[in-house]
Amino acid sequence: MPRKLAAGNWKMHGLARDLSELDRLAADHSVPGCDVVVCPPATLLGPAAARLEGTAIALGGQDCHFAASGAHTGDISAGMLRDAGARHVILGHSERRADHGEDDATIAAKMAAAHAAGLIAILCLGETEAERDAGATIEVVGKQLAAGLDADADADNTVIAYEPVWAIGTGRTPTEAQIAEVHGFLRSTLTGRLGDAGEAVRLLYGGSVKPANAAEIFAITDVDGALVGGASLKAADFSAIIAALEAA
Ligand code: PGA
Fold first, then answer.
1. One digit per residue, pLDDT tens: the chain, 248 residues?
2. CATH number, domain containing residue 69
3. Which of 10, 38, 228 to mutate to test the pocket of ligand 1 (most atoms within 8 A of CB)?
4. How many distinct structural domains can be found in the chain?
5. Which of 29, 65, 88, 93 is catalytic?
6. Do the Cβ atoms of 117 and 2 come closer than 8 Å?
7. How far does Cα 221 stand from its chain's mean position?
8. Atom of ligand 1 nearest to the CA of 227
9. How many A from CA of 71 to the centre of ligand 1?
């Protein structure tokens, strides 16, 4: 059984004053029974790293460029994230796919860049509501998974987050059966591709996870944790989700 992982994605939220949430999180989980990572905006990575030094809370970036360096105004490389104290990076989030037109080939190049820099990549995939209604969910996530995994991907450096687009930030979640179906498919695809290592890749569910539904989601087979957006901004909520994961 892979060690479980609770990942918080602050998205474009958070100023210096919000770093105090991390103190509370670190105090609540000094010896967590699962891995915990927070992905604040890039502006806060440096100060957050200083604040979390010596704690059990890890840091991640929310995206990186596929190039190691160069003339890419406004972009951040995987090596820069690492240099700032990150050990993880979220890639292929549906908001990046939608807002920045990221396609599977770009995301695969970013995966390779993240792995070359020694980061753990959290690869996000998921169907839109129209794709689910058309019965195309498995086909869509299968394609995103096959395209996104780079040649270096293994159980130590890669985490998969299934995030149905229609469940992100909406308060709606799939049924247990719908999550189980997709996670079971991802697991069998990963073992097909990576052999036994595919059993150890962490499969996160993301999309409107909150304290009230966390235990129910974490009881589903092949759910090894969560990628949490809105409910990760306040330490009290994220702590309750982490506690549910520890108890699962
Ligand atoms: P949410 O976001 O928890 O606010 O739905 C999840 C995500 O986008 O990672």
1. 789 999 999 999 999 999 999 999 999 999 999 999 999 999 999 999 999 999 999 999 999 999 999 999 999 999 999 999 999 999 999 999 999 999 999 999 999 999 999 999 999 999 999 999 999 999 999 999 999 999 999 999 999 999 999 999 999 999 999 999 999 999 999 999 999 999 999 999 999 999 999 999 999 999 999 999 999 999 999 999 999 999 99
2. 3.20.20.70
3. 228
4. 1
5. 93
6. no
7. 18
8. 9
9. 31
Catalytic residue among 65, 115, 163, 183: 163
> Which residue's CA lies nearest to atom 7 of ligand 1?
229
pTM: 0.98
Return the structure tokens found at 175: 């049924």
Task: Say whether 93 is catalytic.
Answer: yes
| CB burial of residue 44 (10 Å; 0-12, 13-18, 19+) | buried
Domain residues for the domain of 239 are 5-247
* d(CA 136, ligand 1 centre) in Å: 22
Give residue-wise pLDDT tens across range 35-80: 999 999 999 999 999 999 999 999 999 999 999 999 999 999 999 9
> Is 13 a catalytic site residue?
no
